Amino acid sequence: MILISNGKEVATDVGFACGPLKQAKGLMFSRRIPDNYALVFVMKKAQKVSLHMLFVNYPIDAIFLDEQKRVIKTASLQPWISTCSCKAKVKYIIETSHGKSDKLGISIGDKFEFENQCK
Predict the structure, then answer these.
(1) With contact defined as beta carbons under 8 Å apart, do 2 and 94 qualify?
(2) Beta partners for 93?
(3) Where are the domains of the chain?
(4) Does the pLDDT of residue 34 top 90, yes or no?
(5) Where are the beta strands (DSSP E) in the chain?
(6) Which of 23, 40, 77, 94 is the most exposed place for a label (fewest CB within 10 A)?
(7) Burial label, 30 (beta-carbon count in 10 A; 0-12, 13-18, 19+)
(8) How far apart, in whole angstroms, are the C-alpha atoms of residue 65 and residue 67?
(9) pTM
């Protein structure tokens, strides 16, 4: 389960992309993302990152977190054509259903709570 600091649930079904192959694949080739699902990318160390939407057939929200699991950027990505990068160093990226960030009022500085499954 992922929670933001105001206690609102973001996802109850959480997957983790721990290595380069799982991170490269991400949500590619999946048919849809359920509203209660989130995929958490865990970088080995905080770094500048970028995302692409090639072979993703539906829109998603991406939430970029620092090492303290604080939101440093949010983005809404469109199928196939969107790309997104973050100038700040990122430790975690959360990909979740489209509109979730706005629906829950997720904003810069919010703190997420979850157990890193990639240790």
Answers:
(1) yes
(2) 41, 64
(3) 2-108
(4) yes
(5) 2-4, 9-11, 13-17, 37-52, 60-65, 71-77, 83-97, 112-113
(6) 23
(7) middle
(8) 7
(9) 0.94
Q: How many CB atoms lie within 10 A of CB 79?
A: 14
> Quick one: which of 66, 42, 44 has its CA closest to 115?
42
Give Cα 21 to chain centroid, integer Å. Answer: 16
- CA 94 to CA 87: how far, in whole Å? 17
Q: Which has the closest alpha carbon to 6: 92, 115, 104?
A: 104
CA 14, CA 85: separation in Å to the nearest integer? Answer: 23
**Separation CA 56–CA 96 (nearest Å):** 13
CB-based contacts of 79, cutoff 8 Å, min separation 6? 53, 56, 57, 58, 59
pLDDT in tens, 50-105: 999 999 999 999 999 999 999 999 999 999 999 999 999 999 999 999 999 999 99
- Number of helices and strands in the chain (H, E): 2, 8
